[in-house]
Amino acid sequence: MKETLSHPIPSTERWTLSDMPTQRGRLAIVTGTGGLGFEDALALARAGSEVVVAGRSPERGAAAVATIRSQAPTATVRFEPVDLASLESIARFGERLRSQTDRLDLLVNNAGVMAPPRRQETRDGFELQFGVNHLGHFALSAELMPLLRRAEGSRVVTLSSVAARQGELDFEDLQAERRYRPMPVYSRSKLACLMFALELQRRSQAGGWGVTSLAAHPGISRTELLYKGAGRVSFQGLMRTLLWFLFQPVAQGALPTLFAATSPMARGGVYYGPARLGETRGGPVEAVVPERAQDLVASARLWEISERLTGVGFSPPSGR
């Protein structure tokens, strides 16, 4: 099977925040308190959505909320703690949200860990990158599925990466216990994120869940992710510092996600990314789906393994 590039709708590349439809009356959850997550939350709040910024650090969460309110004084935005490296924390978050609201219009699975130099584990014993980037968001999406099913036109947008092109799923060593290499393991986790987004759309359609699932990636953007993961003095960190001009502004990198999250032109089961220079920068268009992400058998196997590892299920309650 060859990689295929969907034909982009010509107008999407010129899409900007001024084209975002009003989000008034909608409730959105964005994981991550800085970088792309912050830009997503800010744009959604400015457009009128009620926004929950979800993250591990109350300090960073409070700072993000304060900054959003300073730039959008009428915004309805709050922080809720959730540690994507802890299934217990994810379950508690889901319980809180289900007690606070009867529906959820948008979930942006954005937060991530990138290329820590040494293998680390989540509280549940998963390799950190695979555990946070994929399994944490898989579990979070399952916890929030009842709320998503109760909202008309709800969407789940899951962040992948250009690194997914190099990703390989080794089902015999998903946790990188035999061999840990920072960037290949990151690529694996982001391939898993993309496969999850596409499989979620297929299952939602087949089951009549009424939830639209999309994927997006930011190209190469000027975030702090490399610094927090690989470190400033790593090869990747030095590239980020010395070649900063090759990284597009974070607000620009957030556009594919925001397009997927809000545009009437965005379609379920589609992957969105920047238009230019090998999908590293520019306006949002349909991105190339790597061949490995198109493997339906592997996608179903990954889903089943993820359910078993996390102990969550997506069997929705009857009725909407």
What would your notes on this structure say?
This protein has a single domain, classed as NAD(P)-binding Rossmann-like Domain (Rossmann fold, 3-Layer(aba) Sandwich), CATH 3.40.50. Helix content is 40%, strand content 14%. The chain has helices at residues 35-46, 58-71, 87-100, 128-149, 182-207, 225-229, 235-242, 250-253, 255-262, 296-310; strands at residues 27-31, 50-55, 76-81, 106-109, 154-159, 211-216, 271-276, 281-286. It has an eight-stranded mixed sheet, sandwiched between helices. A hairpin with a 4-residue loop joins strand 7 (271-276) and strand 8. Helix 4 (128-149) crosses helix 10 and helix 5 (182-207) packs across helix 10 (296-310). The chain starts with 26 loop residues before the first strand and ends in a 10-residue tail after the last helix.
